């Protein structure tokens, strides 16, 4: 008998497998999940090691699937296994050979930023904050300062 978290992992794996393109090495799903906000989505790596997207302009052909995965991940956050170690960010990969991997981390909402997954603003270098994630220097400096206090 599978535990709740194992059943959820299995269902997420099935959903990701269902969208695996024929020329993909792996499908990746990343997301951040807070009580009042979330951001998540899938992309894939081709056999020639190029990052590819499922989206076409404003059209998202896998939106229903992403909604299902988001619901499963929100259920996963509530599983007993995570009671003492909550998480807010996850990174899931499924390879073309069927290998499933999921990583979690906790990033406080105060240290999060749009399109910044598995790390907080305070974990960025000044250059990354400014040139990759477009975090205003003042915000980055304040988050770094606050992290040093803890």
From TrEMBL:
Domain of life: Bacteria
SUPFAM superfamilies hit by this protein: BH3703-like (SSF160424)
Protein name: Protein of uncharacterized function, DUF600
Native source species: Neisseria zoodegmatis
């Amino acid at each position: 008998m599978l535990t709740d978290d194992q059943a959820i992992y299995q269902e997420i794996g099935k959903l990701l497998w269902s969208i695996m393109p024929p020329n993909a090495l792996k499908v990746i799903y990343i997301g951040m999940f807070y009580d009042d906000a979330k951001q998540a989505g899938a992309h894939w790596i081709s056999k020639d090691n190029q990052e590819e997207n499922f989206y076409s302009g404003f059209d998202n052909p896998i939106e229903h699937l992403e909604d299902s995965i988001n619901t499963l991940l929100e259920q996963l956050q509530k599983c007993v296994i995570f009671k003492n170690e909550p998480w807010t960010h996850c990174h899931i990969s499924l390879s073309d050979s069927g290998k499933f991997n999921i990583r979690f981390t906790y990033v406080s909402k105060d240290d999060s930023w749009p399109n910044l997954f598995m790390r907080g603003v305070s974990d960025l270098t000044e250059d990354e904050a400014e040139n990759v994630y477009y975090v205003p220097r003042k915000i980055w400096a304040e988050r770094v300062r606050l992290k040093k206090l803890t």
